[in-house]
Amino acid sequence: MVGLVDTLLAQHQAGRRVTDAIMRYAPNARSDEDDRHRLVSAMQSFVTMYRPHAAREDTDLFPKLRGLVSAHEYDAMAEQFEMEERRHFGPEGFEKIVDRVANLEKAIGINDLNQFTPRGL
Questions:
Q1: Residue 88's closest CA among 96, 100, 77?
Q2: Burial (0-12, 13-18, 19+ Cβ within 10 Å), 42
Q3: What pTM does this model have?
Q4: pLDDT of residue 34
Q5: Got the DSSP string for 29-62?
Q6: Which pLDDT tens digit goes with each residue over 34-67?
Q7: For 116, phi and psi rounded to 5 degrees?
Q8: Structural domain spans, the chain
Q9: How far apart are CA 46 and CA 18, in angstroms?
């Protein structure tokens, strides 16, 4: 699965670049048409990449990993990921990032999940 892992790692880096672009364009997206178009494009590119990326991790990579390591090793890896998260984002890093995303969603008017529900079908 080396090829898959290489692709996923490259996509993680690309996702960080796209996220940086989203953070750059979001604050002015309501008042600046160019930033709004850049923001929409960045978000679309992220979604286009993320959906198959997450699906491949969930259906191919993570199940294979669970079969390669013991439950203890898997739990130790999860703890290592938690430590990395805290190192990168601080002790309440995940919660801070969630709040940041929520504020961005409010700023660009996509915070109400109900607006994305298909109607009339």
A1: 96
A2: buried
A3: 0.69
A4: 95
A5: TTT-HHHHHHHHHHHHHHHHHHHHHHHHIIIIIH
A6: 999 999 999 999 999 999 999 999 999 989 988 8
A7: -100, 0
A8: 1-68, 70-109
A9: 7
